[in-house]
Amino acid sequence: VAASILYLNSQQSGNYDGGEFYWADMFSNNGGLGEPSVIVTPKEGRMAFFTAGVENLHGALPVERRVRDEEPRRLALAMWYVTDERLEEVIPPFVGRPEGDDNEEEEEEDVIIDTPSQKLLMKIPIQSMKTGALKLSLWFHLVKQQSNPTKKSWQANEGVDENMLTMLYRDHSALFSITLQKNVITIHRHVDVHVRPASLQYQLQESVMLHDLLDELVKLAFGKLEDGDGDGD
């Protein structure tokens, strides 16, 4: 999978400072977790293009208001490009509605609320799921990821809800939760806004973990994608 980001305005026209796109190395020269190594300043018409795997850790710096009493507005268009034709068959049924449901009355959705200490990262609609079995599979997966990228980087726990799992980062600046609801999986970031925001190191490693988690969900739903045409040769 490849990705790109196209800037639609600049810092000046959008009344903001910060908001730069960056790439970061997995590790810094002193052996610690990486810091931004390449920074792209927003400019109308400027595009950054890259492969969207763990080889290109990336993110955006916080946006800050430039002129008082005027709202900052950072405008950018993010795009993803699928290069594996097999993924075209995998993605639609994972997020689509079941066949024959076009005329059925939609069920009331679960209410998902963002607060200053809780940010919704992903909402994945599911046609159906065996909640207990999926939770157990994800639990084993998260436990195996606790030492990624280094020993004791993460701590896997069960959440306050019986269908919730959490992953706490080692600097304790933030954690993310996975909640299995009736027809949706939600992933939130949780921080203590009275102490500090999520660290940059957390955000970099969270991106890696969520990429890996999505791969695991695809494997659980559809089986592992193998090389070859599947004819057994």
TrEMBL record:
Domain called Prolyl 4-hydroxylase alpha subunit Fe(2+) 2OG dioxygenase: residue spans: 2-81
What domain of life does the native source organism fall in?
Eukaryota
This chain belongs to the protein called Prolyl 4-hydroxylase alpha subunit Fe(2+) 2OG dioxygenase domain-containing protein
- Which GO biological process annotations does it have? collagen metabolic process
In its UniProt entry, the species of origin is given as Ditylum brightwellii
Q: Entry's Pfam families?
A: 2OG-FeII_Oxy_3
